[in-house]
């Protein structure tokens, strides 16, 4: 009796100890987990690019990994550093602009506003009602203070984001150097966890990450670049900032069309109807790329249902933030594969009743 109790207590203690060690390890590594996850997603999505670069460099892995890390620095760190520098350099102007919101007065609505289809007259009438109330300072003062506090907080957040990006680049370089070893360890763990479907699930997760990287990120990049070209050609101020904003909106599945549409409205407000009409046409073209380019790229990167990838992207973005763009489709893809395999598994044939009774 005592031996049976000891046999039950031992595995409980072992599982408890392993769970405590795992929890403490995750607690210690918590500051490094987001950069490590980002680095893993980036390396999985760009691994083939690194292999092609390594082949062109005579099969040398170290120079290829260094060049890939430098490319990430140029893509992520340099724009972030420029954004921080721009905020610091224009801190006084931004503060003065926020303070000036407390003394805003509206005049008559511009003529083009009433000429907008469907909502033009309503918008103009609302503008007149606000203008009739006089100085908007008392109403805007609380929001101006909150806006100023938010802008101040973002400067500190940008510094933390810079450190986050630097850690991501360092982890990416290490994974490029030791990618095969890390993949082998992950496959061994997956086989121990599930001998039948573990390895296939790992490969499917990689396909999901590559599909999202191709379909979502590349489509967002193409949309933002084309939209930025249209804004720069038409003379919109700060086209670089607008291009970055379009990229973020496209990644978030909102699209670049709202920014281009607002730029068209700005041209109408400046009595430049020609550029306004041109940008409206460009809005339709840039916004329509979503429906053509993204499905084709996702199917090219991963042989998975398009609806599954889209649900994973949107749901993951809502649940986990920007990292959820990759985590969401990966989780849904693995779950989908396991569920299909379970459904397709044939049940063992039932024993013959006659044979059983005869036995």
Keywords summarizing the entry:
0% strand, mainly alpha, disordered C terminus, 2 domains, 15 helices
Distance between the termini: 37 Å
* Structural domain count: 2
Structural class: mainly alpha
Strand content: under 5%
Reading the helices and strands in chain order gives HHHHHHHHHHHHHHH
Structural account:
The protein has helices at residues 2-28, 33-56, 61-89, 91-100, 111-114, 120-132, 137-177, 179-193, 198-234, 239-251, 257-269, 273-301, 306-320, 324-344, 353-358. The protein folds into two domains: 31-177, no CATH class; 185-344, no CATH class. The protein starts with a helix and ends with a helix. It has 359 residues and is mainly alpha-helical.
The gist of it:
With 359 residues, this protein is mostly helical. The protein contains 15 helices and no strands.
SSE diagram, text form:
Elements: H1 2-28, H2 33-56, H3 61-89, H4 91-100, H5 111-114, H6 120-132, H7 137-177, H8 179-193, H9 198-234, H10 239-251, H11 257-269, H12 273-301, H13 306-320, H14 324-344, H15 353-358
């Amino acid at each position: 009796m005592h031996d049976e109790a000891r046999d039950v207590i031992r595995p409980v203690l072992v599982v408890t100890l392993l769970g405590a060690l795992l929890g403490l390890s995750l607690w210690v590594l918590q500051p490094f987990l987001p950069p490590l996850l980002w680095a893993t997603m980036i390396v999985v999505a760009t691994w083939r690019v690194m292999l092609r670069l390594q082949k062109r460099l005579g099969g040398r892995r170290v120079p290829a990994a260094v060049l890939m890390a430098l490319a990430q620095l140029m893509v992520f760190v340099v724009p972030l550093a420029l954004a921080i520098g721009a905020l610091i350099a224009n801190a006084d102007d931004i503060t003065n602009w926020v303070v000036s919101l407390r003394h805003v007065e509206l005049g008559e609505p511009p003529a083009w506003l009433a000429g907008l289809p469907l909502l033009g007259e309503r918008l103009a009438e609302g503008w007149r009602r606000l203008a009739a109330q006089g100085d908007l300072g008392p109403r805007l003062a609380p929001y101006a203070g909150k806006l100023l506090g938010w802008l101040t907080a973002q400067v500190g957040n940008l510094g933390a984001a810079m450190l986050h990006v630097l850690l991501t680049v360092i982890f990416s370089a290490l994974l490029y150097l030791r990618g095969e070893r890390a993949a082998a360890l992950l496959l061994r763990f997956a086989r121990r966890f599930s001998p039948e479907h573990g390895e296939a699930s790992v490969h499917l997760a990689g396909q999901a990450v590559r599909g999202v990287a191709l379909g979502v990120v590349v489509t967002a990049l193409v949309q933002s670049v084309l939209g930025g070209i249209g804004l720069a050609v038409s003379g919109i101020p700060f086209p670089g900032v607008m291009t970055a904003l379009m990229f973020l909106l496209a990644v978030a599945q909102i699209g670049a069309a709202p920014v281009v549409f607002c730029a068209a409205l700005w041209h109408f407000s400046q009595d430049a109807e020609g550029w306004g009409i041109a940008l409206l046409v460009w809005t339709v073209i840039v916004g329509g790329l979503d429906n053509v380019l993204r499905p084709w790229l996702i199917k090219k990167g991963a042989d998975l249902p398009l609806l599954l990838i889209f649900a994973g992207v949107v749901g993951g973005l809502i649940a986990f933030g920007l990292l959820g763009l990759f985590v969401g489709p990966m989780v849904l893809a693995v779950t989908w594969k396991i569920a299909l395999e379970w459904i397709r598994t044939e049940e063992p044939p039932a024993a013959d009743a006659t044979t059983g009774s005869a036995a």
